[in-house]
Amino acid sequence: MNHNKLLFVFLFLCITCFSFAQNARVKGVILDDHNRPVPDVNIASLGITKQSDANGFFEISVPSNKKLSLIFTHISLKMMSLTVSLKPNEVFVFNPVMSSSEEQMGEVFVSSRNKKRVQGIATIDAATIKKIPGANAGIENILKTLPGVNSNNELSTQYAVRGGNYDENLVYVNEVEVYRPFLIRSGQQEGLSFTNTDLVQNVDFSAGGFQAKFGDKLSSVLDITYRKPTQFGASLEASLLGGSISVDAVSKNKKWSAVTGVRYRNNSLLVNSQDTQTNYTPTFADIQTNINYDISDKWQVSFLGNISQNKYLYQPLTRETKFGTIDQPMSLAVYYEGRERDQYDTYFGALKTTYKVSSSLTLKFIGSLFHTIEEEHFDILAQYRLGNVAEEGPTQVDFTRGIGSQLNHARNDLDALIANVEIKGFKEWKNDSQLEFGLKYTRESIRDRIVEWEMIDSAGFSINPPIVILPKNNQPYQPYTGPLLPYQDVRATNFNTINRFSGYAQYNKKSELGSNQIWYNVGARFQSWDVSGAVVEGKNQIVFSPRAQFAIKPDWDMDMVFRLSGGLYHQPPFYRELRDLDGVVNPNVKAQESVHIVLSNDYNFKMWNRPFKWVTEFYYKSLSDVNVYSIDNVRIRYIANNNATAYAQGLDFRLNGEFVPGTESWISFGYLRTEENYENKGYIARPTDQRLKFAMLFQDYMPNIPSVKLYLNLVYNTGLPGGAPAYSDPYLYQNRLNDYRRVDVGFAKVFVDNSTKVAKAKWLKNFKELSLGLEIFNLFNNQNAITNTWVRDVYSKNQYAIPNYMTSRVFNIKLNARL
Questions:
Q1: Strands 559-571, 541-553: parallel, antiparallel or unpaired by DSSP?
Q2: Is this structure's pTM higher than 0.70?
Q3: Whole-angstrom distance between the N-terminal and C-terminal Cα of the chain?
C-alpha cells in the first residue's frame, strides 16, 4: 500500500479539494434477447478494448467532449455500435441488448441516466462481497461498512440503520420479501443469512427516504437480485468456518436456467475464542435455488426456493473473565451445568411470473410462502465466584467477594406460516415517464408458547424479583417468611392470525429545468390489517404513506447531483412488535409513524486520473406512536403500547473509488443522535443511539506480485446505550457499553481470475477463478462487549457489571474456486 496516497486521501477529506480530469466513462450490463447477461463481449474504442465479465458488466474510459463510437462484438451475436459525446467526468450507463438476428446502432448525446444514483441507492459489487473478510462474511458484512449502518456484534447478520432497530429493515430477493427466524436471542445462534452470496448478481441498498414501491418499514431497503446463468459453471468455497457449493445450469435451447447453492457453517472457531469454554456442536446448513423458464419473448417464470436448518447445541463448561482497574483487578469464575438446545427450521418458496403485455406495459405476479418451526430449550445452572485477583498470579483469587448461582430455564416453541400474493405493474411512456403500481395480500398465522424463568441465589439465599412487592428479605440476619418467586418469569400462549392488504402507486419522470436535468417521483402506499386469535380480537387499522423524491443535475462542469427525498413512513406491527414484556399479545398496537427527510449531494470526480465519488447525506426523522423496546444481544423485547415519541438526526459521508487502480475501496463516516420520550418522562437515548461511526473497506495488491491481494475491513463505533439488567428502568440507569473496534484483514494468492486469460500450468486451465487466502479476524485482539453479566458482592451488597466479550483474534484459511 502507498502511504503517501492514503495521507493524500485524508488531507482531501479535511480540506475538500477536488481534482478534475478530462475523461468520461461508459459502463453497463450487456444482455441478450432473453435479458440474460452476456460475458466475454469485446468493447472497442480508439484502439482500447475491454471485455464484459461473467455477469455481463463492462466499463470503459473514453475522452470527453469528443464524438466517438464504441463497437460491441461477440462470437455468437451480431455486432452493435454506439456513438457518444460526453462531458468531463460524466458516467454514461448503457445496458445494450445484443441480438442474434441483426446489427444495432445508436447515437447518444445525453448525460448519465443512472436511475439508482438519482434515487439515492447504493450499489454493491457482488465480487467485492465475496472477497472482503469478516466473521460473518456476506452482504451484511459489507453493509456494516456503509455510513448510517451500525452493528456491534460480528456474530450477527442483523444491523440497525439511522437509529432504527433490526426489525425496521426491508430485505427483498428477486422482488420477494424474505424473513428471519423469530426466537434468536444471540448472534452465535444465527448461523446463516437468507442471502446466498454465491448466487447474487446485483445488490442495491437505500438507508432512508426510499420510494413508495418499497414496503412498510421505517429504516432501510436491501434489494437483491439473483443471477440468470448463461452457461454451465460451478464454484466452491471452503474454510475453517464451513463451506459452500453453487452450480449454474442452462438447457440446450437456453429456455431453462437455474442456479443452486448449498451452504454449511460451523461457528466453533469463533465461539471457542470467547471467555466461556463450551462443548459447542452447531449445524447450520441450507440449500437454495433460483430456476428460470422463458416461455416466450414476452413471458417468463421463475421459482426461488430455500430450505434451512439451524441446530444450536450449546453446553457451557467454565468461564473466567478479568475486569476492574489496575489498582483493584477482579476476576469472575463461573462453573456451569446443563445445556441449551435450539433449532430453527425454515422453508421458503416463491413463484414469480413476468408478462410483457406490450413494449410499454409489463405485469408481474408473485406468490410466496414462508414456514418456520422454532424451538428454544435450555436449563443452565451457573455457579459463580467473584473475587480479587491475587498479587502472586493473575489466575489466583486471594479474597472472595461473592458466591452465588443462577438457574435459567426455557421451553419456547413457535410455528409461523406467512403467505403472500402480489400483482405489480410497470407502464412506460416515450416522454421518459413511468407509472408503477401494485397490490398485495398477506396472511400471517402464528402459534407461540413461551415458558421462561430465572432463579437467582446469592450466598445460599434466594433473591426476590425487583418489580414485585414482597416482605423484605434481610437474610441471613432475619428469617424470611415470604414466598419464593422466580427472579424473572414469563409465561404465555398465543395463537394469532394477521391479515394484511397493501398497495402502492408511483409516478416517475425525467425532465429538464432550463439546461439542468431533473428527476422526480411521487407516490403513496396504504396498508390495512387486523389481528385476531383465540383470546384476542383487534380492530381493523389503516395507514396511508405519501412519499416523494426530487433530484437535479446542474449544467456544470462538475458531475454533481442534488437530491431531496422523504415522506410519511409507517411500520404496521409484525408479530414480535405485538408481544409485550410478559409475552402477551396486544392486538391493537398501532403502526409506528415517521416523517422522514433526506437531503443529499452526490459528486463524481477524478483523482489520480481514476474515478471517485463523494456522497453527503443529512437526514431527520420525527417519530410518533413509538413502540419502545430493549435489546439484549440481538433479541428485541417490546413494551407494545405506542406510548412514546422519538427523533433521529444525523449526517453521513462516504468517499469511494479506485484508491488502488482496478479495485474499489471506500471510507465512511457517520454522526447520529436518536432519543425517545416515553410517557412524557423526558428524552433519553434510544438503544441504537450510536453517535459516531467510522469504517473503511480497502482493497490492494502487491505492485511487484499483483496476484497477491490484500482486503481490509475496519469498523469503529462509539458505545451503545446498554449493559443494564433487563428489568432496570432506563430513566434510572443510563450507561453505555465501550466503543466497538474491529479490524478484519485477508490475504489471498490468486492463481486464476477474470484477468488471467491463459493459465500457465495445465492443471489451472479448467478454472476461471482460483485463490487461497489467510484471514485474521479481530487483528488487534480488541475486547468488545455486547452485554453485561450482573453479580452480587455479598459483603458490600454491590452489584458488579462483568462484560460479556465478543470474539478475540481468530485465524482462518479460505479456498475459492470457480469452473
A1: antiparallel
A2: yes
A3: 31
